[in-house]
From TrEMBL:
Subcellular location: Cell membrane
Record's keyword annotation contains Transmembrane: yes
Transmembrane segments: 23-47, 59-78, 98-120, 140-164, 205-225, 237-258, 270-289
UniProt family annotation: Belongs to the G-protein coupled receptor 1 family.
Membrane topology annotation: Multi-pass membrane protein
Protein name per UniProt: Olfactory receptor
GO MF terms, alphabetically ordered: G protein-coupled receptor activity; olfactory receptor activity
């Protein structure tokens, strides 16, 4: 493996989403409005679930954590991207870049693991209802959450570790509006084939397996619902349909970005924008709009504070 005049990389230059000033302004306004309206909604979901004892079921426990993870995820890319719209030279330090990369994957894969746990919860509730209370105990839910954070940490740590040893000797320009493994690895002045395979395996294979597993589990659940009564069936189908929508919103862009070799496509930045900024904020809102219990609890919370 040949290395040519490697130097210590201290900073990267982000080329941004686009060079067009008109498109930058449009994206800035849309993202800012979206950010200021939808982000508080995620925190409202968390507050509602925490403050209402009637929403103590595992389903709402996981939903509250999904809203928290999604809100946290939205802070990784969006604020800096909005500020960079006004910067001629978008510079990010090497450490700052790796830190952004770590938390991007830590929270991103955490959301996907959480969707798997939510599918498991729905499977037990619908297919094994008599055993639900004994299986989905509070300590089991907290154990799954701990497993989520440990798995997410291991995944993100591997992403950073694969980049730390790479030598850089040429351009420090990242053709993106945030730091991610594919763009950083492209700048290394050495043969990165093995690293690319490991990154695609660590990202793409894990994402694809989770996605296919989720589709299979919801197919089993929907098949099992055939024998249920109309009222219970409609409610369960509505919940599962919402979960499936969120699964496609989360996994669709991730599969497009991480399950292929490090090639550049014209749609990469647009897909990345939806994956890192738009969809994470939308996921809990989509679920809440289709959940009568959470909406009723929000109204009670709102009326309680307004009436004071």
């Amino acid at each position: 493996m040949e290395i040519r005049n490697s130097t210590v990389m201290t900073e990267f230059i982000l080329l941004g989403l686009t060079q067009s000033q008109d498109i930058q302004l449009l994206v800035f306004v849309l993202v800012l409005v979206f950010y200021l309206i939808i982000l508080p909604g995620n925190f409202l979901i968390v507050l509602t679930i925490v403050s209402d004892p009637g929403l103590s079921a595992p389903l709402y426990f996981f939903l509250g954590n999904l809203a928290f993870l999604d809100a946290s995820y939205s802070f990784i890319v969006a604020p800096r991207m909005l500020m960079d719209f006004f910067s001629k030279k978008k510079i990010i330090s090497y450490r700052g870049c790796l830190t952004q990369l770590f938390f991007l994957h830590f929270l991103g894969i955490g959301e996907m693991f959480l969707l798997v746990f939510m599918a498991f919860d729905r499977y037990i509730a619908i297919c094994r209802p008599l055993h639900y209370s004994t299986i989905m105990k509070p300590r089991v839910c907290y154990g799954l959450l701990m497993l989520l954070f440990l798995g997410s940490f291991a995944h993100a740590f591997v992403q950073v570790a694969l980049i730390l040893h790479l030598p850089f000797c040429g351009s420090n320009q990242l053709d993106n509006f945030f730091c991610d493994a594919p763009q950083i690895i492209k700048l290394a002045c050495t043969d990165t084939f093995v690293v690319e395979v490991l990154v695609v395996s660590n990202n793409g294979l894990l994402i694809l397996l989770c996605f296919l597993g989720l589709l299979a589990s919801y197919a089993v659940i929907l098949f099992h619902l055939k024998g249920h009564s109309s009222e219970g069936k409609n409610k369960a189908v509505s919940t599962c349909t919402t979960h499936i929508i969120i699964v496609f919103l989360m996994f669709g862009p991730a599969i497009f970005i991480y399950t292929r070799p490090f090639r550049t496509f014209s749609a990469d930045k647009v897909v990345a924008l939806f994956h890192t900024v738009i969809f994470p904020l939308l996921n809990p809102v989509i679920y809440t709009l289709r959940n009568q219990e959470v909406k009723a609890s929000m109204r009670r919370l709102f009326n309680r504070h307004i009436s004071r």
